[in-house]
Hints:
Layout: E1 8-10, E2 16-19, E3 26-34, E4 40-44, E5 53-57, E6 68-72, E7 75-79, E8 85-92, E9 105-109, E10 112-116, E11 121-122, E12 124-137, E13 140-142, E14 144-153, E15 160-165, E16 169-179, E17 182-190, E18 200-209, E19 222-224, E20 230-233, E21 239-247, E22 252-253, E23 258-259, E24 264-271, E25 279-281, H1 282-285, E26 289-290, E27 295-296, E28 300-303, E29 306-316, E30 331-336
Antiparallel strand pairs: 1-2, 3-8, 3-11, 4-7, 5-8, 6-7, 9-10, 12-13, 12-18, 14-17, 15-18, 15-25, 16-17, 16-28, 19-20, 21-30, 22-24, 23-24, 24-29, 25-30, 26-27, 28-29
Amino acid sequence: MAVQYGGRTRNASGVVTLDTSVTALRSIYTTQVQGNGAWDQYFSIPQIKEGSFVVVQPPTPDYAVSVEAWWSPGQLHLRRAFNDRWVVKVLSYGDAPDATTKYGIRARNDSNLVQIDNVNKVMSVAGSGSFLLGRRGPSDYILSGQGNFPSVIRTTEEPYVFLRSDTGMLVRKYRVLGSPGAWTGFTVDASFLGPFVDLLYTVHWMVGSTTPSAIEGDYGIRIRNESSERTFNSNDNLILLSGGAPSSDRFVRAGTPIETPTVYWSSFQMPWTGNVNDYFLASSLLPTFFDGYEFYDNPAGFLVGNRSVLQAYSGSYNSSTGAAGVNGRTVFAGRPVRPL
């Protein structure tokens, strides 16, 4: 049945730039929490609603260590938060109006709510590119790759970096470059484990930001807040969710583990979309984590010819116990509305 409710905009070329029958990703709340040293820590955050999901990041840009996070309505659960401070971003498909939501649009299509205003900000593509990683030949390896944003991203919070590959890919040690209010790029390292030891591949990336562009034109919708600051521009290339709902608990131990002389790499997999054009959120999945004694990598990517799962590994220096796992990191598939 054709869509009967909502709104759609097109640009001068007739290309759809906004369709409220497909829900875009919106950031609705950002805060910080302070760790108290406990292994498991719980925080009351009323802004986490049914259907929300949470991305947790360190406030220090070069602090390439992740924390494990799970959530339920009204509550955030962190593991390995130690005594550190963490940035918490609560994201939602849409939310009911409150005293702070003004200056925007709201559209319903059956059970689907799209709300874009001064609080519910849409994520759009702020830059994209590609680089090579892997083995080019005997003793010829590309160990690290860097994505440079086309212009500085001025948000206080870290931007969202997504990765994909047309073939296979296994990457690790995500690090953002720049500082709050001046993000300039990111780096990742190649991981040469198991079936990826001889692989050469192109990493495609895109970066998402909630700051709209200043693009003008005769078509589309532009929204400003009470201070006349632009909060939305339908001419931007929006990033939409694809596949299943975001989660931090769908990895299961599956696949073939890899044992090296020093590290036992447990294999984990989670269901994926089956589409080579879908990107995964790398900025929350790929940072290392510290268990109080050792730093561990969390390589992740795609097996060659298989997009039914997202592949990840977690290392342990004690093969008798295996790794702690890769759950606790928010993962979802994203895709731009228009081809990059």
